[in-house]
Amino acid sequence: GTRAIATLPGDGIGPEIMDVAVKVLEIVGEAEGVDLRFEEHAIGGDAIDKTGCPLPDETLAACKESDAVLLAAIGGYKWDNLSSKDRPEGGLLQLRAGLDCFANLRPATLEDELLEGSPLKPDIIKGVDIMIVRELVGGIYFGQPRGFMDEEGDRAGYNTMVYKKSEVERIARVAFEIAKQRKGRIVSVDKANVLEVSQLWRQTVADAFEEDGCSSDGLELANMYVDNCAMQLCSNPSQFDVILTGNIFGDILSDQASVITGSLGMLPSASVSSPGKPGIYEPVHGSAPDIAGQDIANPLGMVLSAAMMCRYGLNEPEMADIIEDAVKDVLAKGYRTGDLMGSSPPGAELIQVGCTQMGE
Ligand code: NAI
Ligand code: MG
Which ranges of the sequence are coiled-coil (predicted)? Predict the structure, then answer.
């Protein structure tokens, strides 16, 4: 049958990299006999300019009706002075919440071709293959109460970090399922030495692990404080297989893990809901306003997000394999966008290309 893909190019380099991803999908879809229908909708700053709000009702409704949502990036200098609830980034939070995409999957995998380009020592990072499973619709980014207040003549801003047992259980179970398809090692990351919310998190993960009989499935569960995890990601990243964590810790750790791969521009992500509901597939990086409109952005994070969409959202793993192999292939042949120019596979000459050319 046909698959309806809602495409949300957004702001900055978003439209440039979306263009590449759609072309790749069209070609691979045709080769594999999968009929993809693309429908473009506004989000972020682009939607604010067109409609006054970062996630128009029409966009959310179309995304709910789709089989999968492909999102590029949102945000930019132009909208930086709006209050936090009116900003482009608000559109993304609303979309994730609106589709109930509670699980964010962020791989940090190092392609051998990019080993030399990483700022970290090759012997430390060789073969790193981490999947960060981040809770996406709870925690401090959504907790109530939040706001500003005046207290004894001083001004304060405040947010609330709260997790319910049920929220922790469902994200933990996503991590367990993913671990079964990988090396089976889960590290749950929290700050249980300081935060009550983390104590509940830790206990709930342990209970769910026990209840599901994960040990007999060959899974291992360990706990780690978030500050230690940040250090270990730099000093010994190959110890990790699946990292399970909450919203804000996962946000920070996944950006940190991205350094291992040499460029933020390489990293895809998936934000998924319960089976059968549409997920959101988007690169980890932002709208890169500093390089927008120059046709120099790296489209590979976007293209690899399209591959994740094929694998997890459309159940077309062959399409995902073809796309991922093509990415390895162009890297092995020495093609690099500007952000990757530090890396060089043995014996290959590097060829610097722009965004469109990389797609071609
Ligand atoms: P950013 O990821 O947009 O850029 C950080 C740095 O990495 C910049 O120097 C940029 O040029 C470079 N970079 C990012 N993606 C690249 C690519 N594909 N190819 C080559 N270079 C790339 O993060 P920043 O600067 O903190 O945020 C810029 C805007 O993006 C802000 O408005 C922010 O709120 C928004 N943002 C949106 C996200 C999303 O849509 N999911 C995620 C992160 C930030
Ligand atoms: Mg982030």
Answer: none
